[in-house]
Specification:
With 277 residues, the protein is an alpha+beta fold. The chain folds into three domains: 150 residues, Jelly Rolls, CATH 2.60.120; 33 residues, no CATH class; 67 residues, Arc Repressor Mutant, subunit A. It is 39% helix and 16% strand. The strands form two sheets. The protein has a five-stranded antiparallel β-sheet with strand order 1-2-9-4-7. A five-stranded mixed β-sheet has the order 6-5-8-3-10. The longest helix is centred in the last third of the chain and has 18 residues. The radius of gyration is 19 Å and the shape is globular. InterPro entries: HTH_AraC.
Length: 277
């Protein structure tokens, strides 16, 4: 039985996909429920096994079902999903404008719940033949080889209008700067134009990305802490520039649907996944 995990993409796909992620379970494995932290990514999901139930945020009822192909994102809320016996999934997490470069679909119309079911179904139709080809292959390496070749031919180049914005994307990691103002000044665009360009081609604004990256850093630090009652919450509030405890809890509820203590319990139980990119 092949194992799941992360697989590297072809060098020519750097900046389009962060990696391939594979989930494969044996027929005798138990059903398990996992929680993926929000990452603002668009994800194309191929399912070659039994249907997968999933939901978002604090909704643990898992009201949606993935049969063969689905598109999720931009992932603003925690993704809750059930992995049944004989599960066989291959996930493509897109980076920045990678999704746009494949599907040429504007992302500025999607709200915090992500892509609508009808829009996701419409985009999924474009890769039905690809799903059939992948489903006919047994081994993960063979599937990835096919995907690499397909994507290298199908992906369009990043337009000249977006390149200057992406060239200065690193400014979002400097908490002393306003990335919108910096990028606008360096690209001779208005601040509104910068925001609109990002929303269209990437799916979220720079302001939203800055807020998320702060939360992601906080989440990464908390995930490495032991599950105890001795967490220095005040120190974390100061370190990550939150106004107060309610501000920190508000971000937790917004992105994950749970409180910091509830997250620590999920993390301690081993059912919470945090992206490394």
């Amino acid at each position: 039985m092949e194992q799941g995990g992360r697989y590297p993409v072809h060098p020519g796909l750097q900046g389009v996909l962060s990696h391939y992620y594979v989930i494969r379970k044996a027929a005798y494995d138990p059903i398990e429920t996992f929680h993926l932290s929000p990452n603002l990514e668009m994800m194309l999901v191929f399912n070659f096994g039994p249907p997968i139930k999933y939901g978002f945020g604090e909704d643990t009822s898992l009201p949606y079902t993935l049969h063969q192909i689905n598109i999720v994102g931009p992932l603003r809320k925690m993704l809750n999903y059930e992995v049944p016996p004989a599960a066989d999934l291959l996930i493509l997490p897109f980076q920045y404008n990678g999704f746009y470069r494949l599907f040429h679909a504007s992302l500025d119309v999607y709200d915090e719940k992500g892509m609508s079911a009808s829009d996701a179904a419409l985009q999924a139709e474009r890769v039905e033949d690809l799903w059939k080809m992948l489903a006919s292959l047994e081994h993960t390496a063979a599937r990835i080889a096919v995907l690499d070749q397909y994507l290298l031919k199908a992906i369009s180049s990043t337009g000249d209008h977006l390149l200057p914005l992406l060239d200065h994307i690193d400014t979002i990691h400097d908490t002393t700067l306003n990335p919108v103002k910096v990028i606008a000044a360096k690209t001779a665009l208005t601040e509104r134009s910068v925001q609109l360009q990002f929303k269209k081609y990437v799916g979220y604004s720079l302001k939203e990305l800055t807020r998320f990256l702060r939360f992601k850093s906080l989440l990464a630090e908390i995930s490495n802490m032991p599950f105890t009652n001795k967490v220095d919450w005040f120190g974390l509030i100061v370190k990550y520039n939150y106004h107060d405890q309610s501000h920190l809890i508000k971000d937790f509820k917004y992105f994950t649907g749970v409180t910091p203590r509830q997250f620590m319990q999920l993390n301690a139980d081993g059912y919470f996944c945090i992206g490394r990119d």
